[in-house]
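Predict the holo structure. Ligand: iron/sulfur cluster.
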Amino acid sequence: MLRLIKNFFIVFGNIFRKPHTIIYPRERIIIPDGSRGVLHLKVDPDSLEIICKGCGLCKIICSQGCITVQKRAEDKGREVLDEFCLDLSKCIFCGNCVEFCKMNAIDMSYKYQLAEFDKKNLKLEKTELVKPSGTIRDFW
Ligand code: SF4
Ligand code: SF4
């Protein structure tokens, strides 16, 4: 009987408690710090060039095989990134590629709204990955 009364007050109290869930997308909350969204190719703030030199380590490390990377040599033998493609349909947002990049050339953005009708739109080229959208914490 005592247990029944106790449960009644718990349930009654819940009526006045603030809900833990939100009605997305009408309501939004701040994305937690350290959340992992789409991979982002970083740019050197001085030269404004993509930092990645196309060494391919991230491609080897990625267990899902979602990174394609290619480098090319310029006139003076300097190696630069030619192609960098991320297949978002395979990415599990583990962050291993970021961890292993010795040049600190990539990071995980806060970009999370990733629904697409066409699967081919989930293949992101370097021009898309270099965009700063999602690099700053936003609301969801
Ligand atoms: S992102 Fe880093 S690990 Fe991947 S190819 Fe570029 S420099 Fe190499
Ligand atoms: S976050 Fe993980 S799954 Fe996605 S590209 Fe990087 S290593 Fe691959």
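The longest strand covers residues 79-87. The first helix runs from residue 2 to 16.
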